[in-house]
Each structure stands twice: as structure tokens, then as C-alpha cells.
Records
---
Amino acid sequence: MVLVMDFFISNKKLLGWISVLSVGAALIFAGTQTYPATGLFFNFFTIDFFAQFFRLLALTAVGLTILASFAFKKIPVSLHGEFYFLLLGFGVLLTVMGAATNLLMIFLAVESVSMTSYVLTGIQKFNKQSAEASLKYLLFGAVSSASMLFGMSLLFGATQSIDLLAIGSAFQSANSGMHAIGLVGLLFMLVGLGFKISIVPFHMWAPDVYQGAPTPVTALLTVAPKALGFAVIIRVLFYAFPHLASHWGNLLAVLSILTMTVGNIIAITQADIKRMLAYSSIAQAGYVLAGLAVPGVLGLRAVLIYLLAYLFTNLGAFFTVIAVERETDSNEVDAYDGLAQRNPFLALSMAVFLLSLAGIPPLAGFVGKVFIFMAVLKADAIVLAIAIALNSAVAAYYYFRIIRAMYLRTNKTVTPIQNPLSLQLTLITTFVFVLLIGIFPSHVIHLIEKALTQFPVF
Amino acid sequence: MHIPIDHILVFTSILFLIGLYGALSRRNAVGILISIEIMLNAVNVNFIAFSRSFASSPESGQIFVMFAIVLAAATAAVGLAIVLNIYRNQKTIYTDEIHLLKW
């Protein structure tokens, strides 16, 4: 893995490129590795294709974010070394999170990922909003970690084990008292993890944090920890509690409907684009949760496809926000008026990302939505399916508002917006992947089916 | 002397709820951090009690507690740094006076 970094190089730009290259090397290394599922360190980790998939996801997100952050001017130059180091460490911790199959490892990984994100959020030391966002994130995050840990302690007490598979088998043979304690423990754990992936009613921190954090960090936070949080939830539920699937399925279905409805409705009224995308990302978590609410291979496959599509789409959207913020120093929706005249490529790519978020064919988001919808319908969860359909319509409204501003309105200033090379590169990458996943989904589906081959689904 | 596990569970639940109440009702950011420490300590007592009373492998609970203590300390360090930073920026650590970001 990527670790060794020289912090004595005075040229921070060079440092950034080294980080990007090392993430790239790790990606290639991770992509070419194939071996059977192995447990490492007394089975504290499991390296299987599932972990592999999430490792690719996390590294891609981190690499693209570092590349995009070259163009972001608001982080003090003296802090660039720390910033890249934190991002790289973040990548390592995320891969650990995807491989953890043990309560202790899950706790350590989730907690250190959160701690890194608090610091990353507050990295603009002299910016009031950034500082406030990191304080809010810290307070909510620490309380949720504590409740997750409390849940873990009850689970440990009920099953006398901290290994997920052992917990599963011990739980089935537990007497009724211990069963009840274990269930309370599971609920507490879900509350803690629900905070991390910002599902309603545990979402209050998300808009503030996403708005206040530096834009590249927001891009990363809406994507990577969320996806890995889902990975942990999937591991916990499918490894330890497959026999309770119908119960937690119903619970997650309710949460999913709540999450997408609240996220989408509040997003409509937002005037700040980062805040709007924050609420939109809450709503997107709701769609992903819908895939989990119908436990089974189909649902799981849909979740992974959606997460992958969402990764490129959301990163791309936030990278466009970086480009506009750089030039106009504003995140208001008004700043997007007449963007098509100022930089046609930027407007086009933003339009594509927003349409993909709305789930319009032939883009990546559409593929994700189709699979979620198929899984939900297969499981006869009609209410859930109707909620998804209605919410997609509501969501399209506020996505189209931006597109209308970009193409149909005119701006007083018509100076063209220049894109630096690194940002252009990330935009093109995400743009191409959004199109590719949308047009040739079969490769992605193949990859994901491989990721699930070593996964114990019932 | 052997204390029954139920008593300990009641005790830690109360401790946890005291911490939670403090975290939700305090205005002072440092006070909230202290409340969170109380919650974490409830968890630690839980782990130790369970591993002492009937775990087949008591060491896993104890190791868990060691890690939990270390991470609690790390959280407190990061937390105080962030509180210090917010004080430098906004000259207050009362959470109801910190409201730049809101809908």
C-alpha cells in the first residue's frame, strides 16, 4: 500500500502529484490481484472480492479528489502536505473498513475514518464555516460512535464473541433474555452506522458539514465514507443476522422511504448548490437503502451497482462546483446562470452529472436506478417502488433548475471560465465513466457479480 | 464478592443515558465532549463486566476496552483541537451561538 511520503519537499505541487501517482499504483495493484477469500490477522479481516470492490471504489474516489484539489485555492499552502497525507491515510482506512469482519476492526476503522473526516472538514483553519462544520461533525459523530460502541458491547455480551460469523451462530442459539439484549445492541449499532451514512432521522449534521467543508473534501465525504458505511452495514447484517432478514428489511424500508422523501423535499428550496447537492446525496442514500431493504442477491447487486454509478456522478458534480467556485467565488445557484456561454464543456458535463443523478438514460445513474427498481419489484415491495418513482420525479425538478440556469439564463459577466489541467482531467474521467457505465453496463455487472461470488448470501 | 450481571447492566445503561442527556442538552462544546466520555465509559464497564462474567474468551472483551480507551483519548484530542479552532474563529464555544450554517 501507499504510505511513504516525503514531507520535506518544499514544492507542494510535486507532493500532490506523488500522492496521485501512488494512489494510481495502488489501484493497478488492487485491480490485478486475484486470490481466494482469505482471513487475515486471526480472521479480523477478510480479503475477498467484496472487499476488493470497495477498495477500488475508495481508491478511485481518493485519487480523483486529490487531483481535483490542486485547483482548489482556499486551503492554505502551508497545510497542503498535511492535507494530502490525511487524504492518503483516509484511503488506507477506507480499505480497512471494507475488509473488516470483526466488531473490533469495524469499530476501529469506522472511528478512525470519522476522525480523519473531522480534521479534513476543518482543514481551512481560518474559515469560520469550515471550523463550524467540523465542530458539528465532531459532536454528532462522537455521539453516534458512542452509541455504536454501546450496541457492540451488548452484542458481545449476548453472544460472547466479537467475530461477525460467530455472533450469527451464537445468536440463533441464545436464550430469550440474551436474544433481547442482542437485538437492542443491533439497534444501537444501526443508529451509529446510520449516522455515518446520513439516513433520516440521523441526517441533521450532513447538510451543514457538506456545505461548510472545502469542496473537494465534500466531494469525497458524500461518496467514499458513505459507500464504505454501506459495506459495513451489509457485512454486519448479512454475516451476523441473515435469519432476521425480514425484520431488518422492513425497518430499512421505512427508513429508506423517509430518507429519500425528506432529502428530496428539502433540497427543492435550497439556494446554495453545495447544500442542495448535500440534500440530494441524503436522498441518494435512501435509494441505496431501498436495495438493502429487499435482502437477497438482487438487492445486494443493485446496491453495489448504484454505489459505483453514484461515485462517478457525484464526484463529477462536485468537481464542476469546484471549477465554478474557483472563478466566481460563489456557490449560489445564480452563479450558474449562463454557464453554457462561459464554458460549454463545464455546462455539458454538469448537465450530464445532474441528469445521471436524476436517473435519465443512457447515463450511469439510470442503470443504478433500474437495478434498484427491479430488485424492489421482484420482492413485491410495491410501496417502496412507488416511493422511489415519486421521489425520482421530485428530484428531477431541482436538478433541472440548475440545468435551466446554465442553458436558458444569461449572466451579466460573460468572461469564459478557464479550467486548470488537473481539474479538466478529473472532469473528463468522471464524465467518461458516467457515460460508459450508462452505455455498456454489462462490464460493471460482471465485475459486481464477481464481487459477490464469495459473499454468503443466504 | 460477585456482583450479578443485571445490576451492572442497569448501572451502565443509566450511565450511558446520563452521558446521552448531557451530550444533547449541554450548550458548552467542552461539556458535550465530557458527556461523550461518560457514554464511552459506560461501554467500557459493559465490556469488562461481560467478559468477566461469562465469556469463553475473556481477553477479547478486555482488548476491546483497551482500544476503546485509546480511541476515546484520540477523539478527545481531535475534539479539543477543533473546539480551540472554533474559539479562535468565532470567540465562543457555546453551541447555540454558533449558527453560520443553517437552513
---
Amino acid sequence: MLRKRVIFTLIYNDGNFIQSRNFRHQKVGNIKWLENNYKFQKISYSLDELIIINASKENKNTQDFSNCVSKLVEKVFIPVCAGGGITSMKDAEVLFNKGADKIILNTALYSNPELVKSLSLKYGAQSIIASIDYKKINNKYCVYINNGEDNIELPLDEYINHINKLNVGEIYLNSIDKDGTGFGYDLSPLSFIQNKITTPLIIAGGAGNSSHLIEGLSHESVSAVATANLFNFVGDGLPKARREMIALGVNLAKWEEYSKE
Amino acid sequence: MKIAIVDYGMGNIKSLESILKHLGAPEVNYTKNPESLFSSDKVILPGVGSFGEAIDNIEKRGLRAIIEELAIERKKTFLGICLGMQIMANSSEEAPDKKGLGLIQGNLTRFPHSKLTKVPHVGFNQVEFGNDSTLFKGLSSGCDFYFTHSFKLTNNSNIQKGICRYGEEFIAAFEQENLFGTQFHPELSQQNGLALMDNFLRAKQC
């Protein structure tokens, strides 16, 4: 049986990793700091996948970002997805060459669908994750692009129809309202969008503890839960959460404790 | 021992290089140079992307005859991973007009989409295998490996197989003399993948 997945999303901003709350950034530390304090390699044993997003607002330097990706993926034998600010085939190529197994796209899905189709043709649909940031306003689900700054006219359900035509491999649905709050996922849109989504669905935004992860994964339409919550989950948080989830019978992959150093 | 990873321009090989390095492979070359390929002890055919583009790239670089010689005549221990495994077969629905390498018998068909089996098939899934397997030696049948693909290999009867289920059964891995293939990514499958790659490195030459 296909397992469900737990994904960690690292948010990068101009050389540092950050904690985001409702898309406002709080600097946490650079890659050295992350390595020293959180032993990222060790944490990766509790993860099914890692997503690294370049959320730099002023200057999205793909070169610097990809060097950082390259450092992070050393000795991390899990799938790594990178993205944020991909505007050309070249940007994607740089990330793939620096060790990304997949790329994640957001604004380009709306502003440059032809690029998305070309990327999918070249790297295969399974290499492309479509990220959607949304907010609930007056009971309507509104979609935002450009780091959550610009509202587009298409509502969430119609936007998903648009994305279905681009031949992507997965959808990463991120609630801006819940982002970084630790209050739990927004599961409210699932019932009305689940029949529209034909690819695996990753939900993000709001996880603060293992019961939130379990709650998210218990939805039939959810293939994976993602968290970007450095404070709650990094350190012992994730290994502990994974052990608890497996003990409770959540359908997660198992592998031996790491022995070879 | 020299390991060659065939360079035919299809996708990321960094995790593959780093797992080989981690397991202590002394020399790993990412190459399309025939001499370098022929002088290697083991060959890995990686690949991410589409079947049609992979075959086009192989033809463009004149690699078809070289791969045939490596795998069939010289009987190098040969491992195809993901798309690299797929192109070892005869054909794929993904590009019906392209001829696969035909190193093993089999064809690829697209997973049918349903509410419970979304396409692509992404994530860890269990692989069942017999206890005489070289690749899975020391692992328990039914252990988890990481998949990400939309097409599945089927209809191959007389080959040693690892089987996975997603809606229906498909071939997740195979071994036939010197030829090995995995639809999943051992280099992205944590400790289970490390164990499998270690077995590949230890596999005896034919």
C-alpha cells in the first residue's frame, strides 16, 4: 500500500532560513546555524521528503540559493524539492544540477503556463510540484501569487482546473491564514476540491504538533502533510512525531535506524 | 572498482553520486565516453524525465550500441534506475513510436487514474521479493522504497521480480543475470536504499 508522507519545508530568505507566520518572515539562522543546532542530516531520517523554498522578496539569487540546496542535500538520501522564483528553463536546470529531485512552482503556474508545460515535458510531470497559496476571505477561497502578495481573479477551484491542464505531478496547497500559526491545518477546502484534484495532494500551513499531522493525513484526499515550523518540529520534534504516528498505526514508511556513519 | 553512471543528459545524478560515495565506491564517473564506459566494472543508467526524450538523447549521443555491448556482450553488472530502468524495456505508452533498449522483455503502460490511485504514483511503497534476490539481500520482503512515476512495467513472465501494488501489481525491480533494474529510487529511499545500493556494489561480476 502506498504510504502517506511527512514533508518538511525549509524557507530560505537571502542566505537565512526563516520562520514564516502568515507570510511574514522571522529570521532564524543561516545554513551553518541550522547544521549546528538542528543536525539536519539526523532529522532527515524522520522525513519522507524535503522541500526548500526560496522566499527572498527583494533579490531571488538562484545561484546562491542553489548552492545552499547543494550543501543541504549532502548525505540526505531522501527526495529534495527546491523552488521559489523559477522563471526560466535555466533556473530549473541549475536547481536540478545542484541536487534537487523535483522543483516547486508557484507564480509561474499563473503568469507563465507555457514554461510549466515545457518543464513538465523535459523533466516529467512527476518532477513538478504546483504550489498554491490561498486565503479564505468572506467564505471564498482566494488564490495569491508573488510570495502571497497578489490576489488573482480565479478562485481556488477554478485555479485547480487551470493547473490540471499544465501536467504537473503534485499539488502543494498552502493556507496563508494558517501559515506558521501552529493552530492546525485548514481542512475546510478539501471536501469541495478533492474531486477536482487528480494528482497527489500535499497540504501545508498550520501544523503545530503530531496530532495536526495525523488529522491532515486521515483525510482520504491528502497524500502528504508538510510543515515549515522550525520551532515546533526541528530538533527532536520530528523524530518524536514520526515515532508517535507509527505507534498509532498511521500509514507511514518504515526504515531501519541509521547505523552506517 | 570503477562505477560508470551513463551521461545521456537526463536529470539529476547528485544523490546517486553522493550515495555511492557514502558507501565507499572508490571511483565514480559520470560519463558518455565509450572508453570510460567500457573500462568500468559496473554501469548505472539513471534517468528522470520522459521515455521519448531519453531514447532521443541516447540515439543523439550514439549510446545505443555502446549500452548494448556493455550489457549484453561484456555482461557488465548493469543497473537501471527509474526512467533508466524503463528504457531497458521494449516500449512505453509514453512514446509509442520510440524503441526501447530491449535489454529485458516488457512494456510500460500508464497507471489508470482513480480516486484512490492518483497519478503519478508518488511516495514510499512496499516491494515484495523472493529470498534469492541479489539486490534485496538482507532486506525483508515488503520493505519501503521511494517511487515517483506515471508508467509501470508489466507483462514480463520469466524474470526475477520485485513486485509492488498500486491499484494493480507492477514490476518494481528485476534482476536477470548481470542486468538489474529498479522503478523506485534507491538513492532516495533512506536506509533501505543504502542497503540495496550496497548489495549492488557487492554483486559479483558475471
